Amino acid sequence: MNIQTSHRIALCIACIGIVSMLTTPAFAAISTPSATPKAANTSTASAQLEELKVRLATKVAELRSVVKRAMFGTVKTISLTSATVETKTKDIKIELTDDVTVSQVISGKRVNLDLEKLEVKDPITVFGTYDEALDLLKAQYIFIESAVQTSRITGVIADVDSEEFSLIVNTADGRSITVDIEKSTKTTAWTAASGITKAGFSKLAVGDSVHIVGIPVPKKENRISASRILDLGNITGAAGAPTTTTAPDASPSATVKATPKPTATPAETP
Question: Does residue 99 lie within any of the structural domains?
């Protein structure tokens, strides 16, 4: 009985050992599948992150290659579809399409122009999208700047246009300059008695000597937009409506005209 009992105990121990051996691999087998999805998920996340990085890099490259830009320069060459603008750093090619808006300030007002009005040597500011890859600025809006220069003229008023608010001034060098009077034009007058006083367009008269400071009107030869006018009156005795400063000069001319009248009296007596 003792031997049998010993055999039974040994058999139980052996069975327990076998079961434990079978159980341990079973746990390993169960844990292995659970680890595999985690590795797969990690790999998928990494792939998605890399793809996102590539997309972001591509988008940044696109934004860098095509950006909104404004530039200033002078028109060097021009054709139907493009122009070359000279800037301080380099020449830039401008793409011109039918959708481009061209404008300019003329006589104090912003006016839209046809693209054909754009000319070589025009100072312009261009707004559009710049393509770095093509080194090309696709113009959307072009503003023709006024020439940054001031003209000073001295001469005699030959005509006053009350409807157009303009003057024609003849200068000593033989030019006839059209002068546009703007709302911002400041006009003063000089007299020996009062010195310089405030005046206006209505006080300007044919024959008056004037000194004018203004800005040349783009694309208009011998025409300026006046910023300041100093009216000296009719100091030259030129033909035209006299001002208060011409009174001393008018007396001799009146005397000359009156001289023939006494000779006409005897002719009427018979």
Answer: yes
